[in-house]
UniProtKB/TrEMBL annotation, chains A, B:
PANTHER family: KTR SYSTEM POTASSIUM UPTAKE PROTEIN D, TRK SYSTEM POTASSIUM UPTAKE PROTEIN TRKG-RELATED
Protein known as: Ktr system potassium uptake protein D
Top-rank taxon, per record: Bacteria
Pfam families hit by this protein: TrkH (PF02386)
Cellular component aspect of the GO annotation: plasma membrane
InterPro entries the UniProt entry points to: Cat_transpt
Residue stretches spanning the membrane: 12-32, 72-99, 129-150, 190-211, 232-251, 289-306, 351-372, 410-430
A molecular function GO annotation: monoatomic cation transmembrane transporter activity
Membrane topology: Multi-pass membrane protein
Keywords assigned by UniProt, alphabetized: Cell membrane, Ion transport, Membrane, Transmembrane, Transmembrane helix, Transport
Gene Ontology process terms (BP): metal ion transport
Subcellular location per the Swiss-Prot or TrEMBL entry: Cell membrane
């Protein structure tokens, strides 16, 4: 009756369980009386929501963090964000080491060596690399923002506290804030916005891309070439960023932007397009935007960031494979090519699965929340926005989340968990062991569409 | 410089151009002064919208048909519906005969013979079969409804006119009405509703299924087996129908259904779930339903009916392949099996393409219409509902279509056209000739989701 642990718990199951465990642990920590400010009482459901949102680096919140949590509470929150943000890659690597399983593809690509050549030492080096890059970027961001914030805050401590939390929140794309109103106080400070945009990019572009960039700049290897993954995800990430920026400007130039200077219009468009992809920080109350912009931002949140990054959504590569497949079909080809390489059939199937699960899951969640909120007349746009924000682990909000009923908040928590783990990993985690069947059914064609 | 016609115009291009041509012709006919009632003037954009809606058998309308069009106008309208409804299969067959091209798969399956054995005589027989089945069902429906309507209408002529138009509208899933208020007058007449539901089913289940059923019942061939297509589309069609019915009942039982008898609740749930799949007839003003129900109905409209039927949407088979692919993945298999058969890789790719194009197209249309209507504060739910209705060629309406601006109405027209032609056929129509490349790029894996 005994089975090996590795048989029962696949690496993906362990990742999912680790996230759930971390969410539960931090919910208890944030529920402790010492975590909240004097005179403020936090309910367990509020602590759980905050913990799920932090570990999944989403940033949706049912409370105002700066008015609710004590220094200790905010320290726990920062820990939860840090763990969630850089957890996904290191955790996966750790699991591999413990179970001695075949290394998952994502990590094989990350270190760009053949799996047979991977040694324990190599993995430790990899984990050290991830931590080095992540903490390095966060420290640089904290130093720049902290120094600059000396202009804003009276005490050096407060300036660097704000700078450090801000850099952590931006790089991990967590989108939490301790200013009490996100980046709205910096609506006219383009330097702060640019630093935040760069930190959001760094977190959302994906660890493999960062590692390859490090390799590219540090090694003297003239044969170095960027992987197909890096090329696809980077180009898709920035193409969608520019489309979002231009789209927002086209929609709002005669509406919300009416009467603004060109640089105000530019920065609102640029910041919203960047933050929608998973950042979740805000320089304005997004509720002031028109319906078309809110839908566009929901679309950007749904697309999200790179796989193996701190961001969520269907991910850039899924979107790219969608469009490349359509293009191939329209060109009369059955294979899918880009950058002089062919996309593997299995990756195309994964993209189809991710898209299907995301569409069905998001649609079902929106219907559920509408049903749960039927008595309170919450606007459909707000429901779509919060659900997209949760599933895309973005964290932008039209402000309804604190007022939702508990079933709706639980739905959002589930979306954040699945959104953070990633749909492929989530499906892998509930997947049975691969079955090899020894016979094949005959293939029969059907009519599609 | 001369090219063969068949090289320039693929069968799919011809189908698309035929639909566009028919829409333009009927727009002119419906614009003629003799087509409208005395004292009523129809603008060209209204005539075009009515024509596009009729030829695409959608049923969305910018005018009240019974108060606008003369007998001649309604005759043109019925012609447009009939042509659109049974056009898709016969037109495809005709194109094949003219061009002598390889018969498209859909028709090969329909007649269940190997393509090499198909003769001209066989094709004529096929077309006759389609017409026989379609007109036969319509005539039976017209007779039953007409006879029954003698209870409702004073003159025999009016009863059979209503019966004939009703049967045509229901079987072709056109959803137009000459009662002036759809089937709302029959809200308590379950016989009329049941006949309409059966006619909607017959049109939406797909011609291949009808032909196979005819074969099954008429032939004494004991070896007859239903095709995989028929099994998948029929089971999916009815599973979704029952889910829709139960879902509507669960949502509305304490809301709109509050205080109704069980049979009223049953028939509202049953009729709405049936009509949403492409019928477009209504026994109530759907605006009275709650947000969650309206979203659920939008989902049903998006799913739609069988391929090669009078219905639209992503089609049953696309949905089935989505779920079967997810199930296979979760079970650890790479092939997709159902009913003892394997789904062909190319059909899985088509399903992915249909889903991608539908999601992106619908989302973009909803954003566009929101932007076009930014000054008039149209509710998002109504925009989502009308766009889903147009793309799914369903025709249910929350009543905003007549009040939309022209750009929004043009967007809906485009959705109806593409929705009617079908996404695969539409993509085929803009597809370049198949290119055989003699070299293969190396395959490189990427990270998805
Ligand atoms: K976030
Ligand atoms: K219809």
């Amino acid at each position: 009756m005994q089975m090996k642990m590795s048989k029962i718990l696949s690496p993906f199951k362990i990742i999912v369980f680790s996230y759930i465990a971390a969410m539960l642990v931090f919910s208890v920590l944030l529920f402790l009386p010492m975590s909240s400010q004097d005179g403020v009482s936090v309910s367990y459901s509020e602590a759980l929501f905050t913990s799920v949102s932090a570990v999944s680096v989403t940033g949706l919140s049912v409370v105002n963090v700066s008015e609710t949590y004590s220094s200790i509470g905010i320290f726990f929150l920062a820990m939860a964000i840090q763990l969630g943000g850089i957890g996904v890659m290191t955790l996966g690597t750790f699991v591999w080491m413990v179970l001695g399983k075949k290394i998952p593809l994502s990590q094989r690509m990350l270190i760009m060596v053949d799996q047979n050549q991977i040694s324990f030492a190599g993995l430790v080096k990899l984990m050290r690399g991830i931590l080095f890059v992540a903490l390095g970027i966060e420290l640089i961001g904290a130093f720049i923002l902290g120094t600059y914030y000396l202009n804003y805050f009276d005490s050096t401590l407060e300036a660097f506290y704000q700078g450090a939390f801000g850099a952590l929140s931006a790089f991990t794309n967590a989108g939490f804030d301790v200013t009490g109103e996100s980046l709205i106080p910096f609506v006219d400070d383009y330097f702060v916005q640019l630093v935040n945009i760069l930190l959001i990019f760094a977190g959302a572009i994906g660890f493999p891309v960062l590692m390859e960039l490090k390799e590219y700049f540090s090694s003297k290897n003239s044969n170095f070439r960027f992987s197909l993954f890096t090329k696809i995800t980077t180009s898709t990430y920035f193409i969608v960023f520019f489309i979002g920026m231009i789209g927002l400007w086209l929609i709002e130039r005669t509406e919300f932007y009416d009467g603004m200077t060109w640089h105000q219009q530019l920065f609102f468009s640029m910041f919203n397009s960047a933050t929608a992809r998973s950042g979740g920080l805000a320089t304005m109350d997004v509720s002031n935007l028109t319906l078309a912009s809110l839908l566009l931002i929901s679309g950007l949140m749904i697309i999200g960031a790179s796989p193996s990054s701190v961001g969520g959504g269907i991910r850039t590569t899924t979107l790219a494979v969608m469009f490349l497949t359509i293009r191939s079909f329209a060109q009369g080809r059955s294979d899918v090519k880009v950058f002089g390489r062919e996309i593997h059939q299995e990756d195309r199937q994964k993209a189809f699965i991710v898209l299907s699960v995301f569409v069905v899951g998001l649609f079902a969640s929106i219907i559920l929340i509408s049903a749960f909120e039927s008595s309170s007349e919450v606007a459909l746009m707000a429901i779509i926005f919060e659900a997209s924000s949760a599933f895309g682990t973005c964290g932008l909000s039209m402000g309804i989340t604190p007022d939702l009923t508990l079933p709706s908040q639980l739905t959002l928590m589930l979306l954040m968990l699945i959104g953070r783990v990633g749909l492929v990993a989530f499906l892998f985690s509930i997947r049975a062991n691969e079955k090899k069947t020894h016979f094949k059914y005959p293939t029969e064609r059907i009519i599609i569409g």
